[in-house]
Please model this.
Amino acid sequence: MIEGAGGRIEYDERGAGPAVVLVPGSCSTGAAWRPMIGAWGDQFRCVTTSLLGYGGTAERRTPGDTSISHEADIVEAVVQRAGGQVHLVGHSFGGLVALAVAIRGQAQLASLTILEAPAAGLLRVNGDCRHYRAFRSMSDAYHAAFAAGNAEAIATMVDFYGGAGTFASWPPRVRAYAVETTPANILDWRSAYDFAPSAASLATIDIPALVLRGGASHPAVQRANEIVSALLPRAELATIEGAAHFMIATHPNEVGRFIARHIDGAEGDKSQAAVNLTTACFPA
Model:
């Protein structure tokens, strides 16, 4: 754990090699990355955490202050603890938080990977009303149902992401955790809708970026991630066919291969930059 003025922040690491900070999404914890970490073996030093209100990370937000900056603060603390430059990877709402961290430019990042970010704010500011309304209709119905007393209202969101019946297919303990953390997830949605970075701010992220989406994901999610990739100056957009939103659990090998290739490429860029600097300082 990291102990801070705002409360505890979950922190765990294992392995050796280039440091990879893995940020999970809503209703999840750092344990969500275990299948992919297992697929990687000893290839990377994997650092995991949980977002505000999940796992061992204390909530800092209030209904009146849901700024995504609070999430960026904790991820920056994790990056600082990891030390040196890291490869930042975020899934779902964690991907949106990773984007906020990259925009702020306060963390030492070697590369950025975003998986299925719910970038509804970007849909709105880029004039994609149809896909924005798809997000809004889902979340408004879900939040209204929860306020009316439906304890399992979050199933609406889960099925939006994974397809009809996804929530019901989850093991009881996973469903129970989603239900338990619904209040935190509602705060997540408020953060997400308020986060609509400008094209100019995204253009400042001058590091290798990979944006991953699932071929079976909701069209609104696919479109949102397409916009993210188009606005990042050094981004590659990739689609994992047959995968939907929860791809780090359903397709860990495929996701892991894409990210490992991306990180290897970024590490190669760093090595070449070091060679170029040495040559410039000490010409033959």
Summary: The first strand starts at residue 2 and ends at 4. The longest helix spans residues 252-281.
